[in-house]
Write a structure and sequence with these properties.
The protein is mainly alpha-helical and 186 residues long. The protein has one domain: Up-down Bundle (Ferritin), CATH 1.20.1260.10. 66% of the residues lie in helices and 0% in strands. The protein is globular, with a radius of gyration of 19 Å.
């Protein structure tokens, strides 16, 4: 699979050379997009910590580790930008302590199936938020930042989909069959 982040960075470098990348003040939509996405990242990081400390599956653990690493990077970049631009930061929940998955009762612990599907929903929701934010940006640097975030989340979504499909955890909608068409062989 191609490295989406490297592809984006190459395209971004070319694009930035074609623009003046003037540093106008953030408009209200850009500020709101930054604030909303940072609030989302702050809260999803808590869930990623819980998932990381709950799972026993090596593939799911890797998804959560990479997801947390990306979220931490997004948080750092947004926090620095928002401080520079004078935008107030949203509150952030405290980090969760490391725990032993076997110490959590089975009925109180998320299953690896639930953890994989939930983190995948995070990747989809984050990619959608970033696409909407990028489309509203007038400043090239802010738009490219959100496209980079989106690309990283999409790449993680593809990785999650591969793992979930391999494990039989991928929740698939029913196939669409227009009326009157022959049913495909299964």
């Amino acid at each position: 699979m191609p490295n989406f982040t490297q592809l984006f960075e190459s395209a971004s470098n070319v694009f930035q050379t074609l623009t003046d990348n003037k540093k106008d003040p953030l408009h209200v939509g850009e500020a709101m997009s930054c604030w909303t996405y940072l609030a989302f990242v702050n809260n999803i990081m808590t869930y990623e910590e819980i998932g990381l400390y709950t799972t026993t599956d090596p593939g799911v653990k890797e998804l959560y580790q990479e997801g947390l690493k990306i979220a931490t990077s997004h948080k750092k970049q947004l926090t620095e930008l928002m401080r520079e631009e004078g935008v107030s930061l949203p509150t952030s929940p405290e980090s969760k302590p490391n725990s032993d998955p076997s110490a959590i009762p089975v009925g109180a612990r998320f299953t690896d199936f639930e953890l994989a599907n939930t983190i995948n929903i995070n990747f989809v929701a984050a990619a959608d938020m970033c696409a909407a934010a990028a489309s509203q940006c007038l400043r090239t640097d802010i738009g490219l930042m959100f496209i980079k975030f989106q690309t990283e989340k999409l790449a993680m979504g593809y990785k999650a989909k591969e793992l979930m499909n391999k494990k039989g955890w991928l929740i698939k909608p029913p196939y669409f069959q227009p009326q009157g068409t022959p049913h495909p062989k299964k």
